[in-house]
Amino acid sequence: MKRMRVFALTLALLLTPCVVWAKDTLTVGISQFPSTFHPALDTMLAKSYVLSFVRRPLTAYDAHWRLVCLMCETLPTLANGLAKIETLPSGKKGIAITVSIKAGAKWADGVPVSSADLLLGWEVGKHPSSGVSEAELYRRVTAIDVIDARTVTLHVDRVSFDYNALGDFKLLPAHIEKARFEADPARYHDATAYDRDTTLPGLWNGPYRIVKVEPGQYVALERNPYWNGTRPAFDHLVIRVIENTASLEATILAGGVDMVAGELGLSLEQALSFGKRHSDQFIVTTTPSLVYEHIDMNLDNPLLADPRMRRALTLAIDRDAICRYVFDGRQQPATSFVPPLDPAFSPDTPGLSFDPLEAARLLDEAGYVLKDGVRTGPDGQTLSFDLLTTAGNRSRELVAEILQAQWRKQGIVVRVKMEPPRIFFGQTVTKRKFHDLAMFAWYSAPESLPRSILRSSEIPSQDNGWAGENYTGYKNPAMDALLDATEQEPDFAKRKPMWQKMQVLYNQDLPAIPLFFRSDAHIWPKELHGVTPTGHADPSPLWVEYWTWGTP
């Protein structure tokens, strides 16, 4: 009966955005709906944000960028002996990592979180047909020794500087998902309870659990009765999705949402303008972040396989003008893929400054002649590309229009196409369905090695179940070697020059076009306290149990 009353209240509130929400319900506005609710399938910030309320990873980086345990008892380190270097049969060095799941942790149906759940996550992750995004992470684990119901030892085939960052090693509830996976691993992507039966309590082990999903509109949550951590202040949470950012701004003013997530809400300039007009009601906090806005180029396209074409497209862009016009100079133009806030950033990387003369020379050299304002190739075809991006984000729409105009000055015809984010990320990008260009952002953790987006082994395909995030199809043995060497160097002082070489090589090859680094803009009412933006890929709801409501 209680659950029925909650649903009735939630639906009534959603349909009547001007009502005053009950104190026990917090409504969060975000701009995208997840393409899946499975923690290991697909990469989309909307999914990560929603799941942060209802799941806890083994480890995460906190707001101070420190690696901490969330679902583990103690962070394994070489110093405390929970991580140990071992010699592999090949003679190479590997590492044994012993991790214990937090005592008393339970799924929301009361079943204890156990070693079996970690084992299932490994089995799913390493299977060649499962389509897990971070498949290489699981393939590195050669064996798992079960010590007891909560403790295992992972045997990893190499020693990496981030060996104990286990946030991407997903726990899956074996009592629900094991049979679904084992029935047909190749079809598990479609059979998982996370998408077929999302409201099953046993899928969730965080402070909240999902109780209702209206695709494209909202996700309703209520407290997990078996959560053994700090009791969250709100009985219910509603994550409401409004893909048009102008409508999202109007909705918070109308009372349809209490707060707008900085990780996935209004653009910086919208939020700052909102803050000036409504500072009596709301707090607007801007956080420089590790968000890299860029354009992936599909290198299977013969035009884009030509490095001259990629460089010409890049040099034809005036990033400074974009940041001035769209963001009033508050976003930083990107000179590579590493954000300046990241310790791995190299300020000495040769820039990709706006150079229309060099762009024109490269296009001429590639055989595309400018005539009557349009470039045509040897076959007489107009030089043209499709630029795909997410619909509803006003800033992204403006950036796309400016890019279109800047490329037009070089005689390049670009058609801008917008897609709903759940389609764009769930199908177009993940399955490499964009023929030419795709504009989106990567949200990374501190010193996050870009293996999954740059290593040649991480190109998604139908044969590997669309595992990996190298959507451009980039292949360079030199980059592969740099990634491997950087990962296995424990001393940051020695890693830093490797990072610099990586950034230089990236700018030489240009599998993607750097645009700018974003700042997050969080909006919440003055009665809401405890929200702590992180500025990286582990979002603020991972600490939702510390959010409170009351008069300052």
What would you say this structure looks like, in words?
It is globular and about 70 Å long. It starts with a helix and ends with a strand. By secondary structure, the protein is an alpha+beta fold. The longest helix has 18 residues. α11 runs antiparallel to α13. It has two domains: 176 residues, Dipeptide-binding Protein, domain 1 (Alpha-Beta Complex), CATH 3.90.76.10; 230 residues, Dipeptide-binding Protein, Domain 3 (Dipeptide-binding Protein, domain 3). β14 and β15 form a beta hairpin. The strands form six sheets. Strands 13-19-12-18-16-17 form a six-stranded mixed β-sheet. Strands 8-9-10-1-11 form a five-stranded mixed β-sheet, sandwiched between helices. Strands 4-5-7-6 form a four-stranded antiparallel β-sheet. 30% of the residues lie in helices and 22% in strands.
